[in-house]
Amino acid sequence: MSHVSSSPKVRGGRKAAVGNVGRPPVAWALPGILFFALFAIVPLAIAVYLSFCHWDGLNSPTSAGTANWTRLFKDPEFRQAAWLSLLLTTISWVFQTPVALLLGVWAAGRQRSRAVLSAIFFVPLLLSTTAIAMLFHALLDPNFGVIKEIGPWFGIDPNIMGSSTGALLTVAFVGGWQFMPFHTLIYQGGTRQIPQVLYQAAEIDGAGMFRQFFHITLPQLRNTITTSSVLMIVGSLTYFDTVLIMTKGGPGTDTTILPYLMYRTGFQTYDLGYAAAIATALVVVATAISLILVRFSGFGNMRSTREGM
Amino acid sequence: MRSGIFTQGKRAARWTAAGAAMVMAGVLAGCGSDGGSGGGGGTLTAYVYGDDAVKVQQAAVKEFNKTSDVKVKLVSVPGTDYVNKLRSAMGSPSAPDIFFNWGGGSIKPYVDANQLVDLTSTFKNDATLKDGFLPSIVTAGSLDGKVYGVPMRGMQPVMLFYNKTLFAENNVTVPKTWEDLQQAIKTFKGKGITPFALGGSDKWPELMWLEYLLDRIGGPDVFRKIQNGDSSAWGDPAVLKTAQTVKQLVDDGAFGKNFNSVDYGNGGAPTLLNKGKAAMHLMGSWEYSTQLGKAPEFAKKDLGWTNFPTVAGGVGDPADVVGNPTNYWSVNARTKHKDAAIAFLKTMASKSYAQSLVDNGDVPTTSNAASMLSGSPNPKFATDQYEMVQKAPDFTLSWDQALESKIATPLLTEISKLFAGKSTPEQFVAAMKAVK
Question: Which CATH architecture has domain B156-323+404-434?
Answer without folding.
Answer: 3-Layer(aba) Sandwich (3.40)
